[in-house]
């Protein structure tokens, strides 16, 4: 067997145990937190192994890579989430192949996803991406602009607004991480106070899911802690880094 393949089931169990322990310590119900397996760069057979171990929700960052896996795993009842940046020329295939999209940060993208979502499928479940760190390199709408974007999205016929998501600054300063998670939770709370029917705060990854759960995450996106170190860069990612996508 390849290295790491026998550890997927144990990795999943460790993450679930970690979620339960952190949630209980924070006075939260572990069942209120959904585990999304962030599976980029892992081939379909490794996702199948994770599915056999009990994981049914997977998040992919790069469309071309994801489409190969979606086809290869079409026999499994997987719920696919698109969690990467969205280019306008890819909205049609995203809208056709995914149940959720986590990175909506522009009205134009929302409009295209709604237009491209097939009538035969349920509405596309959407989270608004908020740039809580203020980094120019990060996608996301500014916190003060979330309300305007949410008001636009809820008017679109083929989308269902579920909540917000964020990728905080990569830092070992836990106080900074915590403040950015709090910022996302506050944006979520303001939207609910404005009358939006939301239930999802998508934040926290392998390195920082403990703080995210303490600050109210309802969905955590975990890759490395389940699958081990990323196996390889994919051509689509390399192109994105070079500004070609």
Fold and architecture overview:
By secondary structure, the protein is an alpha/beta fold. It is built from ten helices and eight strands. An eight-stranded parallel sheet has the order 7-6-5-4-3-2-1-8. Strand 2, helix 3 and strand 3 form a beta-alpha-beta unit. Helix 4 (91-97) packs across helix 5. The protein is globular, with a radius of gyration of 17 Å.
Please render the helix and strand layout as text.
Layout: H1 8-25, E1 34-38, H2 44-52, E2 57-60, H3 63-72, E3 79-82, H4 91-97, E4 100-104, H5 107-116, E5 124-129, H6 146-153, E6 159-165, H7 174-193, E7 200-202, H8 209-214, E8 219-222, H9 224-227, H10 235-241
Parallel strand pairs: 1-2, 1-8, 2-3, 3-4, 4-5, 5-6, 6-7
Helix pairs in contact: 4-5
